Amino acid sequence: MSTENKAGLDALLTPEESVLVLIDHQPFQFANLNSHEPTMVVNNVIGLAKGAKVFDVPTILTTVLEERGGLLLQGLQDVFPEQKPIDRTFINTWEDQRVVDAVKATGRKKLIIAGLWTEICVAMPAIQAAGEGFEVFAVTDASGGVSKEAHDMAVRRMIQAGVVPITWLAVMSEWQRDWAREKTIPAATEVILQHTGATGVAFAWETQLLAAGRTGGGA
């Protein structure tokens, strides 16, 4: 179960063991998102998705009642333009066998989930999957609830079930793990520049100063 590896090196994420499920980042859900600033959740989930693509982590997109709730967030769909989200009627994603089969087909046991809303569409599948032998990680800043209390209570409930709360940049950092892994650095750096706010700005500035130093320029 997901409670087995709470500490030690094996508790950290690797690209080879991870599978990502992104749940219901749709207009209807965003319309009543009150636990976070919606633009931050948009930024963070797209950054997470881009990170998954950089590290070749299988990613499953899902929607609920797409015809009524709206299409998947366009910026998220653009990361995986070839993928048609699995559109469900089940509130609990893990009760849709197509999603479960897609996850199991990857052969991976570290299940990373982000979605709207935390208290429903994240908590339900996270708790169920944790009870079925998956190590489950809930990306709290790429998710959100109808209120801060709803989000916070959902995170507490998931922790009691053995689910690990984590943020999107921490996920990507664990995937990278070592800056000597040069193959993924250019693309990972681009994600950082685009989606980490002040950190990305500072990184771009540092890169500018380093470049100026190499050419003998600068102030």
Automatic annotation (TrEMBL):
<dbReference type="GO" id="GO:0016787">
    <property type="term" value="F:hydrolase activity"/>
</dbReference>
<dbReference type="Pfam" id="PF00857">
    <property type="entry name" value="Isochorismatase"/>
</dbReference>
<keyword id="KW-0378">Hydrolase</keyword>
<dbReference type="InterPro" id="IPR036380">
    <property type="entry name" value="Isochorismatase-like_sf"/>
</dbReference>
<dbReference type="InterPro" id="IPR053152">
    <property type="entry name" value="Hydrolase_YcaC-like"/>
</dbReference>
<protein>
    <submittedName>
        <fullName>Hydrolase</fullName>
    </submittedName>
</protein>
<dbReference type="InterPro" id="IPR000868">
    <property type="entry name" value="Isochorismatase-like_dom"/>
</dbReference>
<feature type="domain" description="Isochorismatase-like">
    <location>
        <begin position="18"/>
        <end position="168"/>
    </location>
</feature>
